[in-house]
Fold each of these.
Amino acid sequence: MITRELRLPPSVSAENSESNYLTQPQQKSTSGKTEKEQVSENYRKATFTKRHLFTLAGTFLLLLGGAFSVYLLQPQFQEMNLGRMNTLGGMILIFVSSFLLLFRLGFLAYISRLFFRYKPVSSVSDEELPTCTVIVPAYNEGKQVYETLLSLTNSHFPEEKLQLIAIDDGSKDDTWDWMKKAKEHLGNRVAIYQQPNNQGKRHALYRGFNLAKGEVFVTVDSDSIVEKDTLRNLVSPFVTNKDCGAVAGNVRVLNNEKAIIPRMLNVSFVFSFEFIRSAQSMLGSVLCTPGALAAYRSKAVMDCLPEWINQTFMGQPTDIGEDRAMTNMILKQGYHVLFQRNAYVLTNIPEKFSSLHKMFTRWERSNVRENLMMSKFAFKPFRNGSKSGTRLLLLNQWMHMLTAYPLFLMMIVLLVLHPVLFISSTLLSILIFSSLPAFFYAKKYNISEAFWAYSYSIFYTFGLFWITPYAMATANRRGWLTRELPQKK
């Protein structure tokens, strides 16, 4: 199975590193524990401060108040609905709303069926593992890049089959100093490079891909920590499935104890990855391999690398969405893209609203661009076997995009004409539909943290509802938006 070795020189062991992250075993193959036992260790019962309790209490007062208001205002709701049915515009609105609701419920039932069929690929033996190159691009990351590199060298992965490359993309802080410190500590186990100036994550990865020697390329964000079995679990599907071109890792929030936004997003991430991507994996069509942790068959990367690095949108070079773009180009080649639930990575996310909405805007702009790209090949015979599931996933993406402006407009109109009815019905909807991710998290981890699903839904509905319409209107804009150092006044 292995055609060549990297033959990296021996180096200093990282077993006694200065890293202070949590490194829990993941699969029974090396740790002697099942995935469920390991998961419970990863996410211990959370501690709650008075601020947290106040936030959750306020959340449920709002939701229960909304539900009670809907009950009290039934005559007004009936009057409003009867009024709609007496006009052509109202009938169209009711029809479209009913169709969208049925589509969403049908799609949810479909992916739920796929989720229950999903099982991650078990880790293969050391002899079967492919040679692997891990690339860590970094920009203004500071000490965290040091922790990231140490976590990678602590992996349960044969040293002679692992090449580790770290690239400083022209950072303005002390990132390069921390990379040099990692080099001093790890010796030849890591190779470090520095871009002459900041060129963007895509160009840093491009340099890494061209330096890579492994049969599988793994990309890891410099603000992320991988667990000990992550790498071997992540690359095992390439051994067991010859059609596998890329694998997405399972992303969790590293700083979920520090602020309320990370705690809320932690629950959202679990649902997004373990539920949604598990279902997508059953179709061989995970739509995005996350930058925090992804693996690619080297041949698939090299075959699309010139197109990827020279990608443009509306005549301008593309400097965002490099992960979604790479995923699209690998799908286009006919490969399958899978998800490994047992390949965990913990990553930092924004703790403040200003940084969070910039991150979401960047993601949504990327989705607009890459949905357009995917539409160019998804409805053609781009690979053998069934393609209907992949097309349905894309249609769901477009449904989200195309309804953004009508829903935004309807929200504004209802807020003006029927503010109490709109807010109360919205809160009741949040209470109902947020119960799915909350129940999912509670069953998988713990009940107390699951309640953040409700807080997040309120936060997103009333604070971030504008992201998708805004991103669609500004999809041609460039810029990473985050990672810049604070400006001195």
Note: The chain has one domain: 1-414+427-437+449-483.
Amino acid sequence: MRGCEFLQEDLESCHGFDPRAPHRNGPLRIYGYMNLSSIGQMPELEEVETNESNSLVKTVALISFLSLVMLMSVLGNLLVMVAVCKDRQLRKIKTNYFIVSLAFADLLVSVLVMPFGAIELIHQNWIYGETFCLVRTSLDVLLTTASILHLCCISLDRYYAICCQPLVYRNKMTPLRVTLMIGGCWIIPTVISFLPIMQGWNSIGIDDLIEKRKFSGNSTVCVFMVNKPYALTCSVVAFYVPLILMVLAYQRIYVTARAHARQISMLQRAGGAGNSADHQRNHRMRTETKAAKTLCIIMGCFCLCWAPFFITNVVDPFIDYSVPEQLWAACLWLGYINSMLNPILYAFLNKSFRRAFLIILCCGHKRYRRSSILGPGTTCTATQINGSTHVLKYSVLHNGNHIEQEKLSIQNDTESQESCF
């Protein structure tokens, strides 16, 4: 058969097709004619439609994921701040001031940083101008660094509360020192963010490369690239020094918790508290295991979220900035997810915070209101690691009478209420 689409006379003889009388041409004949003319184009059209469909699915999934991260981060951090403001007992514990400041930093990350990053990631284009690009980048560095430094201060506060004597803790964590530490968590990030970025110190020596990457095809990108000195300085101050301090602090906390749990077991066994040696050993192992799990969760989430970004941040300038953009975006958003996890790790795992959350969410239902204060007859044999205090009580048998003694009390009776899981 010759190509029916090319010759007029052949069209009339091919399947009875008459171009002057389209009403006489059945749909099968028209369809056959069209197939002949576009037989080489159909696979390409199907491939384009498939690619567009896959791209739409990926975009919808990406938008849903980013929206979920931002929403959970906003709600979680707001809930933490409201809980401390409404609960008088929570306001009396010094560690909670660090947690509130941390929640405020993470809330700003989710409100001022994440939305613009999400818009650029979805549209692959920056439409807000070069000046706002610098402001947004400075806010990104400021708020994420402030969040990390708050985590470091929380670990140091717990180290002094758990590993030191009560008098040492009172001397170390005075209201003035707590204020200075929180102020440092905001001032230090400001110094390493707005000052060098707005002055262009981070781009010295790589200006040409930045200009090339700023304009990609027909789109404009908010590029943040750093030279070797800034990459090393910023990463050491914002991540590596806090990481080392956190590891050392939590390692000492875990060792102290194990020692206290073992001491409780020995005292109860020697005092004849009515429990078998196997029961005491199991109780001690459960306490140590719970402490280990809590500390592993805290450090594991922190390292998992931020280590990839800061490793990439240091390595990239030394390999001629060859890290793919997709990897940069994944590492950055993994760090942002830490702002969503912080309320869960530092507040939701705390019994007093959970009670306050339930009161807020359930509109003050009596069922969740704080019960009576831990009285003198309450025995607590658990060592709190995730909370802000550390109280160990045990019962011993002396001259036939059970005498409850308080082994260690941090600060005052209010903070002692937070000792049990």
Note: The chain has three domains: 8-43, 70-336, 370-416.
Amino acid sequence: MTSILTRTLRNLPLTYTWATKFPLRSLTTSQPLTTAAQTQSKKTLTKPNVKNIVVVDGVRIPFLLSGTTYKDLMPHDLARAALKGLLHRTNIPKDSVDYIVYGTVIQEVKTSNVAREAALGAGFSDKIPAHTVTMACISSNQAMTTGFGLIASGQYDVVVAGGVELMSDVPIRHSRKMRKLMLELNKAKTLGQRLSVASKFRLNFLAPELPAVAEFSTSETMGHSADRLAAAFSVSRAEQDEYALRSHSLAKQAQEQGLLTDVIAFKVPGKDTVTKDNGIRPSSLEQMAKLKPAFVKPYGTVTAANSSFLTDGASAMLIMSEEKALALGYKPKAYLRDFVYVSQDPKDQLLLGPTYATPKVLEKAGLTLKDIDVFEFHEAFSGQILANFKAMDSDWFAQNYMGRKSKIGAPPLEKFNTWGGSLSLGHPFGATGCRLVMAAANRLRKDGGQYGLVAACAAGGQGHAMIVEAYPK
């Protein structure tokens, strides 16, 4: 049955296509990777009697296509490498860290608290507490803001936050019936009891349970949701492919020009040293047009080329109170400012987190869209990004779905994900949030801007947005 959102948005008063709203010339590979330095200083978001929280620095190991170089490792191996890289990059004394928090989505059962195992493996003191959080694609966002809260509340001064995902080796379980049988067998005391339990076995008990790829509440995969969302907002296949090509082309330029400075080399045990992301693959619109729909067949518009790919990777950030950072002799990269989390209908609005979160975080910070110099949004699918653009630029949607008087407006492409995004750099579910924040911080430093806005959607119809402010040079 056609959803309410799909039915109503067919009448959405958008008299333009995305391609005409945002000219195709802005999607070409010749687009400059930097914008003009800001000539007008804006107000700072420092608040009286409120601690300033800063990012000293952040790193990530290269994000790799699942099934490639990291395939024989475990998640804590990747997280440990990121933590070691952070130690090397910042030279922070290991005993100066007060707390460690990591985000992940699909947990390895042997290391369910991957933050603790990775911290011990990286050489941190066993006296430093560590815990793991999960919030789908915004898990490391949650790790960062958890650290933010710990520092802001005065409990700690120095927190390491990060995230990790290893899609090359996800846990596959026995069926529930088989698990129940095995537990009963383990409790059986006598031979007779064991034989009685064993007699309940059936061959179909051996069918494995794969990790869920669908939303639990809707039984729909995210790819299907992206396809329906693109259709609801009249985002064409050509527009999605154009955006994906833009992401890969800009990521390639950024990689070649050495702008992705958060990436650190990782010597993979028994293999070569990995130095760069391996999913950046600019193609051509002609080649992309040949791919068949990946989810809604045969008429869908979401394909492998305009979707983020399964990725292995890990990230880590050093977060402190500004006072502590200066006392330790650091020059921070950025302030972490206001942030919000949002939730909406996981059926029809699963991927619209940025649309809902952006106006809320801007209002909280007392800023407007024009004040933002750098935008870093998570790219789950091209269709998801472009649908968010249209929703953000629609008074009708703002009034009918968001309870707002008017639209917030769509981010200008010349400020948006200009070093590539999740479509090209990769998306290890638990690690992307830290990448977004470091990309925003590094772009602000390079371009001379003051404010960055990070936003992401997540499974369950949730989302996150945060304001990042450049640290004064």
Note: The first strand starts at residue 53 and ends at 60.
Amino acid sequence: MSPTDAGFYYAEGENTPLHVGSVAVFEGPAPSYGDLVRLLLSKLPLVPRYRQRVREVPLNLGRPMWVDDPHFQILYHVRHTALPRPGSDEQLRNLAGRVLGQRLDMAKPLWEVWLVEGLADDRWAIISKVHHCMVDGIAGTDLMQVIFDLSPDVKQAEPKEWTAQRSPSSAELLAGAVQDALAHPLRQLTALPGSGTATRTAKGLLGSGKSLASSLPSLARQATTPMARTLTGPIGPHRRWAWTDAQFEEFKAARTALGGTVNDVVLTAITRGFRDLLQGRGALSDKAVVRSMVPVSVRRPGERGSLDNRVSAVFVDLPVGEPDPAERLARIRRQMDDYKRSMQAVDARSIIAMADFVAPTLLSLGVRAAMELGQFWAQAVTTNVPGPRVPLYVLGKRMVSAHAYVPIGGGTRVSIGIFSYLNTMTFGINADFDAFPDVDVLATGIRRGVDELTELAGKAPAKEKPAKESAAAQQ
């Protein structure tokens, strides 16, 4: 495992299942359970890790490894259930909340797929979950292409025989860990960008240090910014899950008229949701913010589809105390512009790679301690995963919607997973059950935030966009 993947694995706990997931709804009629099993079996050769389990190195002398599971049984990983007909969206959300809130079996390959029948209007659903140590959000979107088809008429391949490779012995694991501990840091040093020589390495690290130093004033401001503390605290074993939707054109219209990027507009709508939530709790003040961690992919174009994590993060102060939606957007836009300049100046990949120098035992202890102590710097997690803009099919049935599930942990008791499909952007809200009995207020508030920005955009003159704006900038 990479250090990032190992961190997600070590952070797993009794009350912190760290898998990502989704709920995809399809037009009916539903396929049979056997058809879905055979489909997945035929696709597994394209994602061999789905037949692998985690093997820890004795005494944590090395990071955990992926090994083939000699007892792999797909019937364990593919489940079948149904709602009482006609099942409503609320019933599906409640079912998905229970399924996604349960921990994966860490002794087996870390994924599950649930076939759900009985939805109203002759629909059915797939609930999927996979541990975060296997895949980040961007790679997860790529893996959907393994299960999904771009046409309803695709002929499925027949499942093939599979034989597990021999699992290494404990002695072999220890020997490999010692060898890797000696050799890997040297390989990382020679692989650092611009570090062909020791001089260039020093200059590169010095440049990163200067860029990080330049961001210290903003970090100091964040340290003194009052946050609404009711959103953080202990996390229990149960989850509430809610969702809301918006049309992609609504965000594009607001971006065109008001400026910024689609992501800026999305974060502004989410700010309204948190504003309504805190107002309902009597915890809203004029200067308060909700600080959200926003994961940022540092995956290069040629690395799309690889199964390990390539993520960094920025921390955005959502100005919930600001009553004017236009000013909320302006403040978020300024922060995101600053982060973009910082991310260009600092090689985030090199910073992430520095974790390769941390001894695995210290890495495991450090991650677990951080999760137990709680995350006091951020109050929420917000992640935006761009999905396909073309229809997807499973066994000839068209997917009509999909909602993302993002885990919570370390004292941060709410996360928002944003997923775009066709012309719709969906918001999946995962929250601690006891701390967020009002999670629907947040979901409704996000929808109101979209509405107020759309109304504001209709009254404002359109801002001139750059002639050549990249797809990433539009997002």
Note: The two ends are 30 Å apart (CA to CA).
